[in-house]
UniProtKB/TrEMBL annotation:
It comes from Nesterenkonia aurantiaca. GO terms for molecular function: carbohydrate binding. This is Monosaccharide ABC transporter substrate-binding protein (CUT2 family). Residues 1-26 form the signal peptide. Keywords: Signal. InterPro entries: Peripla_BP_I (IPR028082), SBP_2_dom (IPR025997). It comes from the Bacteria. Pfam families: Peripla_BP_4. GO terms for cellular component: cell envelope. Residues 58-312 form the Periplasmic binding protein domain. PROSITE patterns: PROKAR_LIPOPROTEIN (PS51257). The lineage of its organism: Bacteria, Bacillati, Actinomycetota, Actinomycetes, Micrococcales. It is found in: Cell envelope. Belongs to the bacterial solute-binding protein 2 family.
């Protein structure tokens, strides 16, 4: 097979790890964390970037924190803002209402903040108001869910969604690669989001590389209830399964509930996001969950760091290419017991 080798980490090592952000941010594959650790993982500023600069006001807007990963994202942003004496971070109330989030960005524009960090509930829907902010001379840092125009953000920080799918597919190939008739199932997140589409494409491509394909696929909505409902439908439709990839560990709680209710255990499952719950499932040794693909919850904290530099018209002095880059993509390794 021609797949690029992926690095695997133990669950125990993952739980004890923290992401050390050096200078501005780090993408060291060895320094990974669970979503539950991320909110507390804001590192002490280092290097020239830690030196106080002009006082700046940064606005932050994100979805409602009904999901553990979103909660960690928001808390991480708040903690990071607290690290800097020269930053006033204004955090809008989390919302899954697109119109309300648009109003939050408009308020930041009216307040003439110095920079905006936004994790949009729907990137396409918030693109126009983000362009409005950029046209007003306010740099926008786009986190996780990408806008539909390159003019909507000065910098975009993304998890490696395609890489998540590749990592999950590669793991399954390595476990089942000699079984030509293996049945692989997929429990996706919200199908309308580009990040879900990227995860599914990466998964499909990795499986194709070892002669497999997804036999059964359902989409949930990144919630516990959605995961349970979608999985119940999947298990009814597929009487025999060898492996399942579930895109999101939060909805994975519902996925596991449906699996238990159905009395099924003939397959193994790989999760997505690296939540503490899934780490415990992996470590237990008696769960269908064998592994999960990490999806960093440090993105908003990194966004606040970058927004500060942009607002102060400073650069990333600890890099050879010192200007703040247009796009940053974080690493998504597999962890297993």
């Amino acid at each position: 097979m021609s797949r690029t080798p992926r690095r695997y980490l133990s669950a125990a090592a993952l739980i004890s790890a923290t992401l050390l952000v050096s200078g501005c941010l780090s993408n060291d594959p060895e320094a990974v964390e669970t979503e539950d650790d991320a909110a507390a993982a804001a590192a002490e500023p280092a290097g020239d970037n830690a030196e106080p600069g002009d006082d700046v006001v940064i606005g932050f807007s994100g979805p409602a924190a009904g999901h553990g990963w979103i909660g960690a994202i928001t808390e991480g942003a708040q903690n990071q803002g607290d690290e800097f004496d020269d930053v006033e971070l204004r955090v809008s109330e989390g919302t899954d209402d697109v119109n309300q989030q648009i109003s939050q960005i408009e308020q930041f524009i009216n307040d003439d903040v110095d920079a905006i960090v936004v994790l949009p509930f729907d990137g396409a829907a918030l693109t126009e108001v983000a362009i409005e902010a950029m046209n007003a001379g306010i740099p926008v840092v786009n986190v996780d869910r990408e806008f539909s125009s390159p003019f909507a953000a000065r910098t975009t920080i993304l998890g490696d969604n395609y890489g998540m799918g590749v990592s999950a597919g590669t793991y399954i190939c390595e476990q089942l690669g000699d079984q030509d008739d293996a049945v692989v199932a997929e429990i996706a997140g919200i199908d309308s989001l580009p990040l879900t589409q990227d995860r599914s494409q990466g998964f499909e491509d990795a499986l194709s590389d070892c002669g497999m394909e997804v036999e059964n696929r359902v989409a949930a909505d990144f919630t516990v209830a959605g995961g349970e409902s979608a999985t119940a439908n999947l298990l009814q439709a597929a009487p025999e399964i060898d492996a399942i990839w579930n895109h999101d560990d939060e909805q994975g709680v519902g996925v596991l509930a449906a699996i238990e209710n159905a009395g099924r255990d003939e397959f193994f499952m790989i999760g997505g996001a690296g939540s503490a719950n899934m780490m415990r499932e992996i470590e237990s040794g008696d769960s269908v969950v064998e592994a999960t693909v990490v999806y960093p919850a440090s993105q908003a904290a990194d966004g606040v760091r970058l927004a500060r530099l942009l607002a102060q018209e400073r650069a990333m002095s600890d890099l050879v290419e010192s200007d703040v880059p247009r796009e940053i993509q974080l690493y998504a390794p597999v962890v297993m017991g």
